[in-house]
Amino acid sequence: MSNGFDTDVLIVGAGPAGLVLACELARRGVAFRLVEQRGEPLRASRGKGVQPRTQEIFEDLGVLEAFQAVSGPYPPLRLMEGENVLGERPFNEQVEATEDIPYPNMMMSPQWRTDAVLRERLGELGGHVEYGTALGAFVQDEAAVTAELDVAGALRSVRSRYLVGTDGGRSSVRAALDLAFPGETMDQPRMLFGDVTIEGLSRDAWWMWPSAAGNVGLCPLPHVETFQLMITLAPGEEPELSEPAVASLFESRTGRTDLGLRDPSWLSIFTPSLRLAEAYQRGRVFIAGDAAHVHPPTGAQGLNTSVQDAYNLGWKLALVLQGVASDALLATYESERRPIAEAVLDISSAIARQQGGVGSQPRGRQTQQLDISYRSSVLSLHSGRPDRALVAGDRAPDAIYVDHEGRRRRLFEAFRGPHFTLLTFGAVDAPASSEGPQMEVVRLPTDGQAALTYGISGPSIVLVRPDNYIGLIDESPAPTTVSDYLSAALQA
Ligand SMILES: Cc1cc2nc3c(=O)[nH]c(=O)nc-3n(C[C@H](O)[C@H](O)[C@H](O)COP(=O)(O)OP(=O)(O)OC[C@H]3O[C@@H](n4cnc5c(N)ncnc54)[C@H](O)[C@@H]3O)c2cc1C
Q1: For the chain: N or C, fewer Cβ within 10 A?
Q2: Residue 374 lies in a domain
Q3: Residue 357: pLDDT over 80
């Protein structure tokens, strides 16, 4: 890297947000470094619920098959009293896939395996995580960020055009930017979480022992031997995080002395809090994922929201670094994503308050992240009937269509990759822009399945952003519609 820069983007923290951002930059040929203070990946199951929208993003990133191989459906919840079964119900109603929503169900995978899938993809794309490398202080000027990295005790200076803090809830990037992180430590019980091996318990249910002293749950994790353990703690209770202490707490709460709890590979105490950073950007430095928002795990939103933050920021950073868009495009990262996090905080805290502890509430459409929309974004332009169901800013749904060679294809296949996708319905005179960002064109009839899904009745265009949200819908496009939109949007 020349021009006095060591790299274009320094990404700090290799959790799901950092890994997705790195994949997004790698597949666009942007130079980056991804540093992680840990010496090796954390082997913890924490964010195990992966929502339908995240699975769609995984398809775009080319990791869906690998994710499917390590994940599985949520088992039913089985309520217990000692050895007696009190009742059982599905955790989530399983929904059939449709043409427009191919992955309608939340899937479960221990987070360490989801992270591993993303890391492997990053490797295929030519990137890697620099373990044992912690960010120290940094300063920024008009052109660059100069950061100090601690690599096994040796200090190294790195000069990059941008820095992104994907460094988790205790983000030092957020602190260094002096960004307020207002919110509350919730009036909800703290919880002990862990990954443990249990002898003598079948793996066909998420076992729950409700108890006045504190609920206990054991959730079998797919394709591994371990269960995720969760124990609601009493106020002031500080259990020792050791195998004998946790086994004894488990036995006293459940009355099950016949089950052998052993080999905890991760034990942690979680204090639920709700906090949202006052801003996501200061100059050339951004925060994303848990660094920008924290909330209880109820509703399974944290990893999913972190993935989408990175997915939103990645293509924008790349276009700016490639000289295709102005710096102003980057401000839409915060204006699009911060309101989403506000809503996520509301959802996850409402579910936590309803259930008062370990997960038992069914979760529906509101947690699936399929209805996330950037309708009020400056990047969303809608011209045509105001009463249509699908508008600019909404998720671009999947649909089956027949391509020019007569093959049945899915729109999600056409969206896959770093480009914009222009859907033209019927005979329209709105060419793809020959300048500017990479764009693929899909020609569709006005009477097929795609037209129905997109609410199209006459010649129209739909421009789908690289992150597969609709940027532009125009029901009477002119020859310059696409280029006009792009010049405005990319200078946003
Ligand atoms: C018990 C539990 C259950 C959960 N369940 C769910 C769920 O079902 N679904 C869901 O979506 N989410 C869930 N979550 C939340 C999910 O785990 C987090 O939201 C997710 O990990 C956030 O990803 P991230 O990449 O932003 O941060 P993290 O995964 O926290 O990664 C941040 C990384 O930055 C590194 N780092 C920090 N400081 C530095 C530094 N100075 N230099 C270099 N590296 C640094 C850290 O070591 C860490 O590896 C759960 C969380 C918990 C605790």
Answers
A1: N
A2: no
A3: no
